[in-house]
Design goal:
Layout lengths: L1 H49 L9 H8 L3 H7 L3 H23 L10 E2 L5 E2 L4 H9 L1 H9 L5 H20 L5 H24 L6 H15 L8
Antiparallel strand pairs: 1-2
Helix pairs in contact: 1-2, 4-7, 5-9, 7-8, 8-9
Length: 228
């Protein structure tokens, strides 16, 4: 009987603990959701302000007013505005790198040349990358235009090795140094096209901008012509 009683007490205690843990878990989950919503509100507000002024000119007070949160709440999430800006860049880079990882996978040729609807040669692997910019216009615009951002450099470095290795196969007549300069030339040209695309409000679709960039790479530079 004693053992049964002990078992019942133990089970009851476990039941209480389990209920308590569930409550704590629910509260934590709700707290996490609130915290995430606050962080997102601060991120969106900073992006909106960066479309109006430079990062150095933004104060915590106007940021918290825009996000409708207190300064105390801000400091619970970030050390300063620079820390918030870095968190935005980190999140965007992680999402963009997921795309780059798919593009540069071993099973897929990053410089595969296909044919678009008009019958022109193009690089279809670029579509997903441009679709990302198209779907996240404010965040990408702020990161590409802001001198404090290392977004472009980080994404360029991610695809560097895979592209260079493929280019060495396609153009064994070129030295590594020549290919390095070619890579920098191409990626900076693409950056200029993307910035112009953003400046004009993404009038072209991701497919159309892919065709434009593909012609820039394939026709003008002739790096991937049939002769190679």
């Amino acid at each position: 009987m004693t053992n049964n009683k002990d078992d019942l007490q133990y089970n009851a205690k476990n039941g209480d603990d389990s209920l308590s843990n569930d409550n704590l878990s629910t509260q934590k989950s709700k707290g996490d959701r609130r915290s995430r919503r606050t962080a997102m509100s601060l991120q969106r507000s900073l992006v909106d302000l960066l479309l109006e002024k430079s990062l150095a000119d933004i104060t915590i007070q106007e940021l918290t007013d825009r996000a409708n949160v207190s300064r105390t709440t801000f400091y619970l999430h970030y050390q300063n505005i620079g820390d918030l800006f870095q968190s935005i860049e980190d999140e965007v880079v992680v999402q963009y790198e997921d795309i780059i990882n798919r593009i540069v996978s071993d099973e897929f040729d990053i410089l595969y040349v296909g044919t678009d609807k008009k019958g022109q040669k193009w690089l279809p692997t670029l579509i997903e990358a441009f679709q990302f910019f198209y779907d996240n216009p404010k965040f990408c615009s702020v990161l590409l235009r802001n001198p404090e951002s290392h977004f472009f450099q980080r994404t360029v470095e991610r695809g560097h090795d895979a592209v260079l290795e493929r280019m060495e196969e396609l153009r064994p007549d070129l030295t590594r140094v020549e290919l390095e300069y070619f890579y920098i030339f191409v990626v900076n040209g693409i950056r200029g096209i993307v910035q112009e695309w953003m400046l004009h409000g993404y009038k072209e679709t991701p497919n159309e901008i892919t065709s434009i960039v593909s012609q820039f790479v394939l026709n003008h530079l002739d790096i991937l012509s049939d002769d190679h």
